[in-house]
Amino acid sequence: QVQLVESGGGLVQAGGSLRLSCAASGRTFSIKRIGWYRQAPGKQRELVAAISSFGSTSYADSVKGRFTISRDNAKNTVYLQMNSLKPEDTAVYYCNADTQAYGMGNNYWGQGTQVTVSS
């Protein structure tokens, strides 16, 4: 089992910045990839950024150049630095972990954190 707790959301004006944190606990050794997803009202959940256990990163086109995903292995925490925020970035942001251990794969979600960008 892996538990994920997001924090750092809030209300910010357009052009501002926020840093989201995803703290993992439990069988963190089994985590292969952590992704940040977001879901706006009436829209499907979408992948924003991801980082693998090897440190490789990927981003949605809509956030490239504005968002940066990183991790602190000592703290078992993944961050999403969001700069130049736009009203269309408003959504609930979720942390997601893919795990692999003992021949079994699993997927875990955090509870989400609200990000609201005002124009």
Task: Give an overview in words.
There is one protein chain. The chain is mainly beta. Helix content is 0%, strand content 61%. It contains no helices and 11 strands. The protein has strands spanning 2-7, 10-13, 18-26, 31-39, 46-52, 57-59, 67-72, 77-82, 91-101, 104-109, 113-118. Strands 2, 4, 5, 6, 9, 10 and 11 form a 7-stranded mixed β-sheet that branches. The mean pLDDT is 96.
Summary tags:
7-stranded mixed β-sheet, 4-stranded antiparallel β-sheet, mainly beta, about 0% helix, about 120 residues, about 60% strand
Brief rundown of the structure:
Helices cover 0% and strands 61% of the residues. The chain contains no helices and 11 strands.
List the helices and strands and how they pair.
Layout: E1 2-7, E2 10-13, E3 18-26, E4 31-39, E5 46-52, E6 57-59, E7 67-72, E8 77-82, E9 91-101, E10 104-109, E11 113-118
Parallel strand pairs: 2-11
Antiparallel strand pairs: 1-3, 3-8, 4-5, 4-9, 5-6, 7-8, 9-10, 9-11
Helix content: under 10%
Number of helices: 0
Shape, principal axes of CA atoms: elongated
Give the CA-CA distance, first to last residue.
40 Å
What is the residue-mean pLDDT, rounded to a whole number? 96
Give the DSSP E fraction (strand runs of 2 or more residues): over 45%
- DSSP strand tally: 11
Structural class: mainly beta
Specify Rg, calculated over alpha carbons: 14 Å
